[in-house]
Design goal:
By secondary structure, this protein is mainly α. The protein is 66% helix and 0% strand.
């Protein structure tokens, strides 16, 4: 239970960070006092940029310059994307670090299964990232899911596949977390990872 509580607490912290980014996105759209001041000076800028004035006074430079829009690096939506990609990467790392124990009469006595090794820790990290991905998606895209659009809607399928994939991986990891003997959890975890990859592909 301690491991599950730790995963939930960490996922909640990541979701809060994602919510903070989403709040910053909304705050950026609010008008400020400086923007009102700039509006008052609009006529002066237009006069300074008048082509006739520039022809008469070529030494006069334009008061405003056209700048290209640059998307911010950290937003609620991008946080959700980063977490989704990190979840898939962690799932791949978990798969690669899996040790297949020797089976058969010629193997002899096998050591107890490690519950705190690299593979186990990678699995816990994957579950943590999966839960954080779902939480950040709920915060950033809570209004994108519409039941009336049906199950074939890309946004609806993204939500359902993402939640299902995260749940499958969390179940598989929880199943094997406390077991000192080999458990049949790999197939469920791999199915969850594939489901999440499909969810990402739908909206990529």
């Amino acid at each position: 239970m301690k491991g599950i509580k730790s995963i939930c607490i960490a996922a909640l912290c990541m979701a809060i960070l994602s919510g903070t980014a989403a709040a910053q996105d909304q705050a950026a759209d609010l008008p400020s006092l400086s923007s009102e001041y700039i509006k008052d000076k609009e006529s002066f800028r237009l006069a300074a940029n008048d082509t006739n004035i520039l022809k008469e006074k070529p030494e006069a430079a334009a008061a405003t310059k056209q700048t290209e829009y640059e998307s911010p690096l950290f937003t609620g939506n991008k946080m959700h994307q980063y977490l989704g990609i990190a979840t898939v990467a962690a799932a791949a790392g978990t798969f690669l670090t899996h040790f297949h124990p020797c089976e058969g009469p010629n193997c002899g006595a096998q050591p107890p299964r490690k519950t705190n090794g690299l593979h186990a820790n990678m699995g816990r990290a994957t579950a943590l990232l999966a839960l954080a991905t779902v939480a950040s998606g709920v915060i950033s895209h809570w209004d994108d899911f519409h039941a009336e659009d049906g199950f074939t809607d890309p946004d609806n399928m993204h939500v359902m596949l993402g939640v299902t994939g995260a749940a499958l991986m969390a179940y598989a990891i929880n199943k094997s977390a406390r077991s000192s003997s080999p458990t049949s959890h790999a197939a469920v975890a791999e199915l969850g990872a594939i489901t999440m990859v499909t969810a990402i592909k739908l909206t990529w």
